[in-house]
Amino acid sequence: MSRKKVLVVEDSADWHKIWRDQLDGQVLIISALTVQEGERMFMEHPDFCAIVMDACVPGHTPTTLFLTSEIRETFQGPMIAVSSISEYREELVEAGCNHSCPKEDLSRRLMEILHLEPVHAH
Q1: Element spanning 116, H or E
Q2: Which residue of 4, 53, 75, 83 could cross-link 88, Cys pair, CB 3.0 to 4.6 Å?
Q3: How confident is the model at residue 122 (pLDDT cuts 50, 70, 90)?
Q4: E strands of the chain, at which residues?
Q5: Domain that holds residue 45
Q6: In a domain, 58, yes or no
Q7: Which helix (DSSP H) or strand (DSSP E) does residue 58 occupy?
Q8: Rounded to two decimals, what is the model's pTM?
Q9: Which residues contact 14 (CB under 8 A, 6 or more apart)?
Q10: Residues 6 or more apart in contact with residue 63 via CB below 8 angstroms
Q11: pLDDT of residue 1
Q12: What would the pLDDT profile of 52-68 be if each residue is shown by its tens digit?
């Protein structure tokens, strides 16, 4: 069985590593560190089961709202807004995300949304 593929648009490589470690191979994370990379990955991989969208990629003001709206036009699956700032998560939900959580809760939330079994500690 092939793993479910998740697009993660987030400019922090550290968060990508944390989430990969926490999800322990349960999903295949396709990383995009820029808005342009996120758009390209979305076009190249038509089989994502979920999309995770940070608001500020990169910077300190939301830069992914247009991409979120654009993806939502054709993508029917779950889109999760992740940001340390709740107002930015709300803006992403308005732009098309249908779930929201702080970055530190993403792995648990993704497991719930995709109905995956929890990873047991090694």
Answers
A1: none
A2: 83
A3: very low
A4: 4-9, 27-32, 48-54, 79-82, 99-101
A5: 4-113
A6: yes
A7: none
A8: 0.94
A9: none
A10: 35, 55, 56, 57
A11: 54
A12: 999 999 888 999 999 99
